[in-house]
Amino acid sequence: MARFPEGFLWGASTAAHQVEGNNTNSDFWLMENLEGSVFKEPSGSAVDHYNRFKSDITEMARLGLNSYRFSIEWARIEPEEGQFEASEIEHYREVLLACKENKITPIVTLHHFSSPQWLIRLGGWESADTPARFARYCAHVMRELGELIPYVCTINEANISIGIKKIMKRYALKSGSPGAQVGMNMENMAEKMQKYFMGLSKAFGVPPTEVHSFLAPRSEEGLAVIFQAHVEARAAIRQISPQTKVGVTLSLYDIQSVPGGEENARDAWQEEFVQFVPYLNEDDFFGLQNYTRAVYGPDGLLPVPDDAETTQMGNEFYPEALGAVVRYVSTHLKMPIMITENGIATDDDTRRIAFINQALKGVQDCITDGFQVLGYMHWSLMDNFEWQLGFSKTFGLIEVDRNTQERTTKPSGIHLGEIAKENAI
Questions:
Q1: 28 in Cβ contact with 391 (< 8 Å)
Q2: pLDDT, tens only, 298-335
Q3: SS (H, E, C) 286-325
C-alpha cells in the first residue's frame, strides 16, 4: 500500500452510550429498560470504558494508532436542564489528558444518538428550542475543555433518520434490501411498537406521538431542527474555542444505479446528502461515515444480491464504497474530509482485515488524485452495544469478554496499527 500523507490521523471510534456503561440519565437507558422494550437487551455496564478508558487509550497507542474519536455524553454533563455536573466535566478532562499523554489526537463528538431524558420531555428533536439548548451544552463543554479539543463533531449522523425511515419501509415490504447503518431490531416490530410507545409515553410523561428521541421517525421540521442545532452549536464553539476545527458527520451509502435507475439514485443522493450541503458549507471539515453501497434500479432500491457476501448487519461486504463516497462528497463540499466511521460487523476477523485493506486502498487512490482526507477512524475500537441489537454484533478491533471485561486485541487491530506505524516512519 502506498504511503499516506504526513500527519494523517489513524484511529478508531466509539460512542459514549455504547461503551461507557450506566448512562442512567439518558433517553436510551430509559427506553432499553422498559418492559416490552424493542432493545434485545439493556446496555448495563456496557464494556466499562467509563472506568477503563486509560488502559483502552494506552492500548491504542501501543498498537500505533495516533487518534481517537469518542463522544462526550450530554446526559452526564447536563442531567437536568441547566444543571451542569463539574465531576463529569472532570471525567472527560481526564479522557482528553489520557489522549495527550499517549500522543493520541482526540476527535470529540458532542452528540452521538443518546440525549438527556429531560430533553425528550421538552419535545426532543422536534422542538424548535432544541438547537439553543444543544448550543448551550456545547458552549459549556468547550468553555471547560476546548483547549484540549482540536477537532469536534457536533452531531453524529445528523441525517440518520432518513436511513431509518427507509429501512422501516423496506422491512415492511420484506424486500431484502441493505440494512440501516445503525442497530435496529426489526423482529416482530409491528406488534411490539404499540405497547412500547405506550410505555415510552408513560415514562417520559408525554403523548406517544411526542416521544422524539434522536433515532425516532422524523418530520421534515424535525430534520431541520437537527441541522439548525449543528449551525448554532458551530457558532457557539467558534466563539469560545476558535482554534477547534468544527464539523458534523453524515451516514452515507455509496449510491449506485443499474440502467434505468439513474434518476432514483440522483434522488437518493439529493435526499440523503445534497439537500444538507448549505448547512455544512461553513464547516472546517466533513465527517464521512460509510459501511456499504446501495444500488437503485428503475423501480427503486435493489435487494442485496443473493450471492453477495454480507455482514452481521445484513450489509453487503463492499469496502470499495468508501473511496467512491469520498469522491462524490468532494464534488459538493470544498473542505477536508475526515473518515469518522468505516468498518464491518463480523466474527471472521480475516474479513475485517480484508475490508480495511480494500477500504484504505480506495482512500489512498483518492489522496493520490488530489482529494484531501485528514484521517481514517475505524468503527469501532471495541465490540460494544449496538443499540437495539444489543451486544450481538461485533465491529471491534478489540474483543471484550463482558463477564470479566477483559480485552483481547484482534489481529485486525494489530494490522491497522502496523499500517499506521509504517506511515509514521
A1: no
A2: 999 999 999 999 999 999 999 999 999 999 999 999 99
A3: EEEECCCEEEEECCEECCCCCCCCECCCCCECCCCHHHHH
Q: What is the number of other CB atoms lying within 10 angstroms of the CB of residue 262? A: 14
The 3-state DSSP class for residue 189 equals helix
344 in Cβ contact with 395 (< 8 Å): yes
In 3D, which of 87, 10, 12, 102 has the Cα closest to residue 50? 87
For the range 349-354, what are the long-range contacts, defined as Cβ-Cβ under 8 Å and sequence gap of 24 or more? 349/410, 349/411, 349/412, 350/411, 351/309, 351/317, 352/397, 352/410, 352/412, 353/411, 353/412, 353/415, 354/319
275: left (phi over 0), alpha (psi -120 to 50) or beta: alpha
Find the largest Cα–Cα distance for the chain: 59
Give the pTM: 0.95
Task: Give the pLDDT confidence of 213-253 residue by residue, as tens digits.
Answer: 999 889 999 999 999 999 999 999 999 999 999 999 999 99
Find the radius of gyration of the CA atoms of the chain: 20
Over residues 59-102, the pLDDT tens digits come to 999 999 999 999 999 999 999 999 999 999 999 999 999 999 99
Residue 239: which of 110, 89, 139, 93 has the closest Cα?
A: 139
CB contact at 8 A, 4 and 365:
no
Torsion over CA: 110, 116, 119, 120 (sign): positive
* Residues forming the active site: 157
CATH of domain 9-424: 3.20.20.80
d(CA 87, CA 20): 16
